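It is worth pausing here to work through a concrete case rather than discussing structure prediction in the abstract. The textbook approach is simple: state the sequence, then state the predicted structure, then interpret. We follow exactly that order.
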Amino acid sequence: MERVKLIAPSILSADFAHLAAEIEAVTTAGADWLHVDVMDGHFVPNLTLGAPVVASLAKVCRIPLDVHLMISHPEKYIADFAKAGATYLTIHIEAATNPRKLIQEIRKLGCRPGITLRPGTPLTAIEPFLDEVDLVLVMTVEPGFGGQSFMVDQVEKIRLLKQWRGQQGLKYLIEVDGGVNDKTVRQCQDADVLVAGNFVFKNDYAKAIATLKAH
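Step two, the predicted structure:
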């Protein structure tokens, strides 16, 4: 089955002084999801936003909120982000002490669970949980900062995830985040969802989104 490529602009690259306008603009320009990077200054060295901001975004956002938790002790906060309006809620395997329980709890809270891993973590770390998630996020940069270069050595993870999905009859979407632009998109043929920050928000939104969808 041919899957439609979904584009999820990352608000980390948006103008935070005008977030409502930015969300409306990228939605009108053809964005399918809105990607929200949550960083705690501990699991990753940067600090971004919390559940109250996500709740504010949800009030003005007409497309799914794709929330990526780059935080320690995610079990303490998933209920807050679910209540705030997250559609997809993705946790890091490195931060979860009991990944399966956490994934199941996310689903019980009404969100679609996702799992992800740092570039240095082998794909086998998340393999036992692929039958329980709706989304698998492949990081093609080190999590924590926007504007990094695409790590080509992570493309094999995307290929393997597609292969495993087909072989095992699984349903998860494959998402790629980090350095996605008009050049690196060619490396992401096997992905279903593309997260793009700078490439969308630093260019003409509609043209950038259309370019990514065309590949």
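Step three, interpretation. Residues 6-213 form a domain with the TIM Barrel fold (CATH 3.20.20.70). Helices lie at 19-28, 51-60, 78-84, 99-108, 155-168, 198-201, 205-213.
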